[in-house]
Design a protein that fits this description.
It is built from twelve helices and eleven strands. The chain is α/β, with parallel strands linked by helices. The strands form three sheets. Strands 3, 4, 5, 6, 9, 10 and 11 form a seven-stranded mixed β-sheet that branches. The radius of gyration is 23 Å and the shape is elongated. The model has no long low-confidence stretch (mean pLDDT 88).
Length: 280
Amino acid sequence: MHLQRLQSFIEIARYQSFTKAAQSLLISQPALSRQMKKLEEELGFPLFLTSRSGIELTAKSRALHEELAPLFTQISHIIEHYQTDGRIRFGSTPYISTYYMNDYMPSLNTIDIFVTAVRENSRELLPLLKNHVIDAAIVEGPAEWEELYASFLFRDHFVAAVSNDSSLADLETVSLEDCLKEHQILSAENQQFTSRFQSLAEEMGYSYESTAVHEHAHSGFVSQGMGIAYFPELMAKHMEYRGITFLPIEGRPLFRDMYLAAASPSAFQRLRHVFGTGSV
């Protein structure tokens, strides 16, 4: 039985509301409802009654709450007592560390954060978070992580990378239709991006030829005129590649949403204070 579900149950009992409890726990209401359904299945009895004024605890769940609430308060105090150094073990990708976190380093240094795990794909950090190997990370969404505390940070748009010899290189912006007429250089490891790209092309009624290579090789393929690739805008505006021109894509249809995710509310709140609220 997941302690997270029991903690969520205590928050619902506290507020007598799924909506308010979800806001307090920093998760979506559907995710909270799924947690409670699983908890009821594990316990073998219903937890809530619906009334005109909202929700109420059943007699059995009220007794359960009375026994659990003091225990969770005690656990919280014990954890706080042993968190003497306040360090946050952070997981990251080379891209996030170099192009995003660098702007926040003065503030991050004040909260004692250490990057202890680096992965090429941010979603590979999720198992480390859930197993408490790390305390927090910036992870690509969508955020449906019941065991974690998560909040949207920023939308990571992609720009087109074309060879300087391409006829597209003289344009100020390029349409996705024009991009799809070129040979596509796509990621061999980032299947999320490739799937979204394929879905967009299908919606527009386009087919395309492509080569899947490691992301680190994209610039070489493009500079040699072997096709068109897509780079995060945050990276493109900080770097220059010989033989490559970066072009904004009209309508900015290619993007990924990045979230701050943490295994504990304390680490989550400290980092959210640094990174602030998200924006598109």
